[in-house]
Design brief:
- A five-stranded antiparallel beta sheet has the order 3-2-1-4-7. A two-stranded antiparallel ribbon has the order 5-6.
- The longest helix has 15 residues, at 175-189.
- It has helices spanning 57-67, 71-80, 90-97, 142-148, 155-168, 175-189, and strands at residues 2-17, 23-38, 45-56, 101-109, 114-116, 123-125, 130-139.
- The two termini are 26 Å apart.
- The chain is an alpha+beta fold.
- A hairpin with a 6-residue loop joins strand 2 (23-38) and strand 3.
- The protein is built from six helices and seven strands; from the N terminus they run βββαααββββααα.
């Protein structure tokens, strides 16, 4: 297993239901992270880059309440009345999270490597190269913090988020680039 630490910025947030009825949250991010996607022409999984992070909303709630210290706990606690009730609207998630910085760890598992499935806790074996994305920390933007405290929306802060997003757009986190940087650092050290 290899891992890559990334700080990414949330550009958009959406909620949706899967065909099985599971509520999901999707973060559109300004940067690109390694991913595995289904190639619709060949039907095979290919390694690529993605500018989104998707997960069950219940898993995101677990991250908020048990794995990070964030303003979202203050905002969600009175609404949730039990950590996993999905009572917030998409607009509320958007207002809290747009412009937020996510500290993300992308883990790459080679074919045959074992890992623990986060959803059910079972040990599994990777079928081909797989990527697992974990959110380690959430830092809300000034706009998100103001919204959480009930302040009126300050559009100058929203414009600052948009300006920062345009500057960050297109940055690509890549395992190959990290490997090359490590080799260069090793050569310098010698």
């Amino acid at each position: 297993m290899k891992s890559l630490n990334c700080k990414v910025t949330v550009a958009n947030v959406s909620l949706y239901l899967t065909d099985e009825g599971r509520q999901m949250i999707s973060f559109a991010i300004n940067e690109q992270i390694p991913a595995r996607r289904l190639d619709k022409t060949t039907g095979e999984f290919v390694q690529t880059f993605a500018n989104d992070i998707k997960m069950p909303l219940r898993q995101f709630g677990h991250i908020i309440f048990f794995e990070t210290a964030t303003m979202m706990q203050y905002y969600l606690a009175p609404k949730e009345r039990g950590y996993y009730k999905e009572t917030m609207t998409q607009e509320e998630y958007y207002n809290l999270l747009v412009g937020a910085t996510l500290d993300v760890k992308v883990e790459r598992f080679e074919d045959g490597e074992t890992f623990i499935n986060e959803i059910d806790g079972e040990e599994m074996t990777s079928d081909g190269v797989t990527f697992h994305t974990r959110i380690n920390d959430i830092v809300l933007s000034d706009f998100g913090n103001d919204f959480g405290f009930g302040e009126p929306k300050d559009m100058t802060k929203m414009l600052a988020i948009i300006k920062a997003a345009n500057q960050a757009r297109g940055k690509k986190f890549d395992f190959a680039a990290e490997k090359a940087a490590d080799k260069a650092a090793d050569a310098t050290a010698e």
